[in-house]
Design goal:
- The protein is built from eleven helices and twelve strands.
- A five-stranded antiparallel sheet has the order 2-1-5-4-3, sandwiched between helices. A five-stranded mixed sheet has the order 7-9-10-12-11, with helices on one face.
- Strand 1 and strand 2 form a beta hairpin.
- It folds into three domains: about 170 residues, Beta-Lactamase (2-Layer Sandwich); about 110 residues, Helix Hairpins; about 150 residues, Heat Shock Protein 90.
- The protein is α+β, with helices and mostly antiparallel strands and about 475 residues long.
- It is rod-shaped and about 160 Å long.
- It binds adenosine-5'-diphosphate (ADP).
- Adenosine-5'-diphosphate binds next to helix 9 and helix 11.
């Protein structure tokens, strides 16, 4: 039942029938049109032909005074010939409606009461075509133009002829036309099959791709076939690209979740180890307790930092998250960042310099902007050498502001440059962890800059240092 319902509602079947009907109806119309036109033409020509012959005979009827004397051999011969040629019967009626001649010699001397004959006497010629009995019946007046009182109808010729020959031709024509229609139907059916297939195929491909979505199948690159339509091909193509995007998003999501769990578990595992070993020791000295507790406290801080970083990221990831845009002095914001980070730099005797080329005011989200730039400056300090330097500069043109953060630090290997903005990516895991990195800082920075419709670029040389260049438009574009 369901299969039948599906079949009846199938797009392909409907397109097939539409094309079929659209193709067949004109073919059938053509067939009946041709037949009808031929029949009309043939009957009309035949009637005109007979009328012309009758007219000429009718003149002779007058000349030979046939209405009163039917002995004229010439006229009789002509009448016999006419009725032979057309396989018909000719009846001649006089003004008293008496049959003076019947080529079948059946009704001579009888009186005829027929509306056609009476109409003809009144001057109205009739042609009657009987389709079923296959004959034409027509009346032709016998006119005496020499009569005393002008023209007068002295008799009527009633002619009925068989149209078998026309019918035979029509039948032959019908057979031929039927053959042509059959050929057209076959061609149209083939076209309908191909047409419906080429429209529906891309959709079937898409359905297959969706069905395979759960499985680990590569989304097939869509190649255009000869019979496919541009529009359906475009849909299929964008669908395939959507599907592969969804796959990569799904993959990224899974990776992210496993990274998050891993990162969150690490401090917990350390704490568990510290606590367990303290418990196992029984009465450990107070100093050891203090030392282990300090370590545990550090792990808690780290867990806290990871969670905070994750929250910042998630907040920015939300599509509906709108930045809280205000016009702010960028110089002031950077001064605040520098002030906050200076103590950390001082610990390793790193020189922290801010160079501003001009006063810059821009439409920005203060919190996110500060987070982005702090992460860069913090990294520049974290991945630096003892007694190194960090230079921060600010400049602007009429459209954008440019912030650079350069350091004299350890640098980033070339092969890692493209990955450093990925979540949880760290060039040297143990070193980064040692100095308190979560691997989320640059991901947060990048998201925050993208939110401001800006860009961030990085250039670096291992052992020499790294330089980040940030460009952000001065006016925020919705
Ligand atoms: P983390 O929390 O580990 O610092 P980030 O996302 O901020 O994570 O940075 C990712 C990685 O990029 C870091 O682990 C580090 O290896 C590298 N990196 C970032 N900034 C610098 C820099 N200024 N100099 C050298 N390496 C850097």
């Amino acid at each position: 039942m369901k299969a039948l319902d599906e079949l009846l509602h199938s797009l392909r079947l409907r397109i097939f029938f539409v094309v079929l009907i659209v193709g067949i109806i004109p073919a059938l119309c053509l067939k009946y049109g041709v037949l009808h036109f031929y029949e009309e033409e043939a009957i009309s020509n035949r009637s005109i032909e007979i009328q012309a012959q009758c007219n000429s005979i009718s003149n002779q009827l007058i000349n030979y005074n046939y209405m009163y004397d039917t002995s004229s051999e010439k006229v009789n011969a002509e009448l016999a010939q006419l009725s032979n040629i057309y396989d018909g019967r000719i009846i001649i009626v006089d003004s008293a409606l008496r049959i003076v001649k019947d080529t079948y010699s059946l009704d001579e001397g009888k009186t005829i009461v027929s509306s056609e004959v009476i109409k003809c006497f009144k001057g109205e010629n009739t042609v009657h075509y009987d389709k079923n009995e296959r004959y034409i019946e027509l009346t032709v007046p016998v006119i005496n133009s020499m009569a005393n009182n002008g023209q007068s109808i002295v008799g009527v010729m009633l002619v009925s002829v068989s149209i078998d020959s026309i019918k035979t031709t029509l039948e032959n024509l019908t057979t031929k036309l039927d053959l042509i229609v059959l050929v057209i139907v076959i061609i149209v059916m083939l076209v309908a099959v191909m047409f419906s297939k080429s429209i529906v195929n891309p959709f079937l491909k898409m359905t297959d791709s969706i069905a395979e979505w759960g499985e680990e199948v590569e989304v097939e690159a869509v190649s255009k076939t000869m019979t496919e339509f541009t529009e359906t091909h475009l849909i299929a193509e964008s669908f395939a690209s959507l599907l592969s995007k969804m796959k990569s998003v799904d993959k990224a999501r899974q990776e992210f979740v496993s990274n998050v769990s891993h990162e969150l578990k690490t401090p917990l595992t350390s704490m568990k180890v510290l606590a367990d070993s303290l418990m196992a020791m029984g009465d450990a000295p107070a100093e050891l307790y203090k030392e282990f507790m300090t370590d545990m406290s550090e792990e808690i801080d780290r867990e806290n930092k990871i969670i905070n970083d994750l929250l910042s990221l998630v907040k920015m990831d939300k599509t509906e998250a709108k930045p809280d845009i205000e016009s702010k002095s960028v110089n002031d914001l950077i001064e605040v960042i520098m002030k906050r980070l200076r103590p950390i730099a001082k610990k390793r005797n790193i020189e922290l310099v801010f160079e501003s080329f001009r006063e810059v005011t821009a439409e920005i989200d203060e919190v996110k902007f500060t987070l982005a730039i702090s992460n860069l400056v913090e990294n520049a300090i974290k991945y630096n050498i003892e007694n190194g330097w960090v230079h921060v500069s600010l400049n602007a043109d009429h459209k954008d502001m440019y912030i650079t953060v350069a350091d004299s630090g350890i640098g980033i290997p070339e092969e890692a440059i493209n990955d450093i903005f990925e979540r949880f990516y760290r060039v040297d895991k143990s070193h980064s962890r040692e100095i308190g990195g979560t691997g989320l800082g640059l991901a947060i920075t990048k998201n925050a800059i993208l939110m401001h419709h800006g860009t961030v670029k990085v250039s670096s040389k291992v052992g020499e240092g790294t330089k980040f260049t940030v460009r952000i438009p001065l006016s925020y574009i919705e």
